[in-house]
TrEMBL record:
PANTHER family hit by this protein: MEMBRANE PROTEIN MJ1562-RELATED (PTHR33406), SSD DOMAIN-CONTAINING PROTEIN (PTHR33406:SF10)
Transmembrane helix in keyword set: yes
Organism ancestry: Bacteria, Pseudomonadati, Pseudomonadota, Alphaproteobacteria, Rhodospirillales
Membrane topology term: Multi-pass membrane protein
The keyword Cell membrane belongs to this UniProt entry's keyword annotation: yes
InterPro entries for this protein: MMPL_dom, Mycobact_MmpL
Transmembrane segments: 38-58, 248-267, 274-296, 302-322, 343-367, 379-403, 434-453, 635-651, 658-680, 686-707, 728-751, 763-786
Location of this chain's protein in the cell: Cell membrane
Domain Membrane transport protein MMPL: 216-429, 568-789
Keywords: Cell membrane, Membrane, Transmembrane, Transmembrane helix
Major location category of this protein: membrane
Protein's UniProt name: Membrane transport protein MMPL domain-containing protein
Annotated Gene Ontology cellular component terms: plasma membrane
Length: 794
């Protein structure tokens, strides 16, 4: 104990002495809160029942449109022609593979027919655009002496005879579908099923979880046997697998809940205060889920982690309540008075910290992607209910429940004994010499993180679905398609807009032909396809198949004649738009960037009043637009987070030195997080971006609580070092406990089958621990370097 310690007043927050408005609000709220305790419990109890009922109706929800940046010009172009482009957008590919032999057997073709029929009747499939060797919209073409002939692939009256099988083989070869609907080795065939986001008859949204289950039950489970294997890819299957895997998240949440409860019990030495604290944190989750349902939201595979974040934020703040309540009881206050003092001490720092948490989430709204904006709203709601349950309900409950005698005795023992040696070692960071060492090490770490994070990319860095593990069934199916089919599922579509009726004219066809030729030389583009390819083939066919006629004709009569033979999906109804498909090797960020840059340069050269190349549709085009939006919004988001948090800190502590001290470790956290993501091969995208904002929001809590208590001791006359020793005995211990508890809770996520959840668990574990360690070590170090003149300066 120091000589100055008796002068320390521990029942009032120093910030309340500096902010008259905050003090007046606190006095008023405290009086009302503890005067009407029974009424508050009744009101919150009724609200809890209502929200619990609403939460039971919450279902998994996902939407293709919510995953795209609706305000981006690429998406606007896509939506303008969404009817024509539907077969190129949200599509499920089902490959039926012959285990032995090829597809030209009666058993295989009958199986393919049954698979096609089953998929046709699954709700959500755009039946008019369904394609298979058995559907009438897939045809073969042939040049004969009499002219062009065509027909369906599987002839009428197919009986499985050798003659019919040979005819099917011939039809497949002359259809030009090898590499798209039929594998290059002729050992598998594909059913292409475009999806409808909204049922045109009922208006109901597509249930991706149910759709994926039906694919598994009606297709894979039913038809996959020793002779046939089924492979399924597409956005709907990714989301379906994520939703199925997300159900396991409940297990991880349960593990987190149990571990948190046990660690809080070990720390507090009081069962009843631990149960009340965990109850309030769990109640915050229940309220958040109920309000989300009330707003009409669901839980998509990305926002399903938000309830845990709500719980984590609640625990982060509630630990301070347990610690302060035990201290006040040990100081001789009654249970009711201790609850009042606890509320008084934590009113300003707790409110500011929670507002900072809300800021961290709300800044995600600048990213115009539906799933991120819903996550931001859902998480902000979570913070709002934590304010109610932690700041209002918990003090009321603690005023009744209190803390046990063992916890009070333990707190008194902590007060009497000297701080642990580690506290004195850490407090040396408050001495100028050691402070310089600590800040110097932090700066070296920051410089290393900058170097390591230079390779951080926007978007996906791996083929397939990076959200799932490389060995997952979905990614094995993606690898199968990549190995056996020439047309990649990663399709980039440019839309060539013309005056009505002019899509087949020579100027348009020549421009498209040049675009395809130029784009096929771009690294990452495997092949291209458009109406022009069909025109060339038809012109050659109507001229005896002479390859010299395999070209674009300047004769409008020739163009008009072959236009009638072109499949309708290669142009829109009034011949004013032609989609040009670029099949890419993958959807990695570098590939998409090269294709977009090359396409934009070409469009800038050729676009005029009559003919324009519009970007971009297809799965790759939409993902490219998403990457552009995230890249442009990421820095804006971080600037807003840091800017608003800095303003709030400046208002609370009225010192730029304190703002620098608290935010310095937060900035290091952001840079280190990006470095770790770069080294782990994680790109900045929809699944990872929220974690970066979260690190700032939750991390600032530690700094606020630490300096708030440090400020009290400084204003009582202690030196910076002695004041920090006392801070570590109380708030510092609680902060360390919070960081370790939260880190252990999310560490179990690394065992999840969902890779992005495992990655988030790893990143959050690092953030919780580093934010805790950085705040404890660097805040006193920075303060020691910035305020050398007077130890009392704030």
């Amino acid at each position: 104990m120091t000589a100055a310690e008796p002068r320390i007043r521990t029942d009032t927050d120093a910030d309340l002495l500096h902010h008259k408005t905050a003090h007046a609000i606190e006095v008023r709220v405290e009086a009302l809160l503890f005067r009407f305790r029974p009424l508050i419990l009744v009101v919150m109890g009724i609200a809890s029942l209502i929200f619990a009922y609403l939460a039971t109706g919450l279902t998994a929800d996902a939407s293709f449109q919510k995953m795209v940046p609706a305000g981006h010009p690429y998406i606007a172009n896509t939506l303008k022609y969404q009817s024509e482009l539907r077969p190129l957008g949200n599509v499920v590919r089902v490959a039926v593979e012959a285990v032995d032999g090829d597809i030209y057997s009666q058993h295989f073709l009958e199986t393919l027919r049954k698979v096609t029929d089953e998929i046709f009747y699954i709700p959500g499939v755009d039946r008019g655009n369904l394609k298979s060797l058995w559907t009438p919209n897939v045809m073969w073409y042939e040049v004969t002496e009499e002219g062009m002939r065509n027909g369906v692939i599987v002839p009428q009256g197919f009986d499985g005879s050798e003659r019919m099988l040979a005819e099917v083989r011939t039809n497949v070869l002359r259809s030009g579908r090898v590499g798209s609907l039929v594998a290059s080795d002729h050992r598998s065939a594909v059913v292409l099923a475009p999806l409808l986001e909204v049922d045109p008859q009922t208006g109901a949204k597509l249930d991706y979880g149910r759709f994926s289950e039906q694919l598994e039950q009606k297709i894979r489970d039913r038809f996959q046997d020793g002779t046939v294997r089924i492979h399924i890819t597409g956005f709907a299957k990714i989301v379906g697998d994520l939703i199925a895997g997300a159900k396991v998240i409940l297990i991880f949440f349960g593990v987190t809940f149990v571990l948190t409860t046990l660690l809080l019990l070990w720390y507090s030495r009081c069962l009843r205060s631990t149960l009340v604290t965990v109850f309030c944190c769990g109640l915050a989750v229940l309220w958040q889920l109920g309000i989300v349902k009330l707003l009409g939201f669901g839980l998509d595979p990305y926002s399903i982690l938000v309830p845990f974040l709500t719980f984590a934020i609640g625990v982060s703040h509630a630990v301070q309540n347990i610690n302060t309540m035990a201290s006040m009881r040990a100081a001789g206050h009654s249970t009711l008075e201790a609850a009042k003092v606890t509320f008084r001490l934590l009113f300003v720092p707790g409110s500011i910290a929670l507002v900072c948490d809300a800021v961290g989430f709300s800044t995600l709204l600048v990213i115009e992607i539906g799933v991120i904006q819903e996550l931001a709203i859902s998480a902000s709601i979570g913070v709002a209910v934590v304010i109610l349950t932690k700041m209002l309900l918990l003090p009321v409950l603690m005023s009744y429940v209190g803390v046990g005698e063992r916890a009070i005795a333990d707190q008194r023992a902590k007060t009497r004994r000297q701080p642990r040696k580690i506290a004195f070692w850490i407090a040396r960071a408050a001495e100028p010499r050691w402070a310089a060492v600590a800040v110097g090490v932090a700066l070296v770490l920051l410089a290393g993180a900058f170097v390591a994070g230079r390779d951080l990319k926007i978007g996906d860095l791996d083929p397939g679905a990076p959200e799932l593990r490389a060995e997952s069934r979905y990614n094995r199916d993606v690898a199968f398609f990549a190995a056996h089919y020439a047309t990649s599922p990663d399709v980039f579509v440019a839309m060539v807009r013309t005056p009505p009726g002019e899509c087949g004219s020579y100027p348009v066809a020549a421009l498209i032909d040049r675009y395809q030729t130029e784009m096929e030389s771009v690294a990452g583009v495997e092949s291209s396809a458009s109406m022009v390819d069909a025109m060339k083939k038809s012109i050659a066919g109507t001229n005896g198949g002479d390859p010299r006629w395999h070209a674009i004709s300047r004769d409008r009569y020739v163009s008009n004649a072959v236009y009638k033979m072109i499949p309708p999906e290669l142009h829109n109804s009034d011949c004013s738009m032609v989609p040009v498909m670029l099949y890419l090797t993958d959807h990695k960020a570098e590939t998409l960037t090269r294709v977009i840059d090359a396409s934009e340069r070409f469009a800038a050269r050729v676009n005029d009043q009559e003919i324009q190349i519009l970007l971009a549709a297809g799965t790759a085009g939409i993902e490219g637009a998403t990457n552009i939006v995230i890249k442009s919004a990421e820095r804006t988001m971080l600037f807003l987070v840091y800017g608003i948090v800095a303003i709030l800190l400046l208002w609370e502590f009225r010192s730029w030195r304190v703002v620098v001290a608290i935010m310095f470790p937060l900035y290091i956290t952001s840079v280190l997080c990006e470095a770790i993501m770069a080294q782990l091969g994680l790109g900045v995208k929809v699944a990872t971006l929220p974690v970066i904002a979260l690190g700032v929001g939750i991390g600032v809590d530690y700094g606020i609580y630490i300096y708030n208590r440090l400020e009290l001791y400084l204003e009582s006359g202690l030196s910076l070092r002695d004041a920090y020793v006392e801070t570590l005995k109380t708030t510092g211990t609680a902060v360390a406990m919070t960081g370790v508890t939260l880190a252990i809770g999310v560490m179990s996520w690394v065992f999840s089958d969902i890779k992005f959840q495992a990655d988030m668990g790893l990143l959050l574990t690092f953030m919780f621990l580093w934010n805790m360690a950085g705040a404890i070590v660097l805040i006193p170090a920075v303060m020691a370097l910035l305020q050398r003149r007077s130890p009392q300066a704030a």
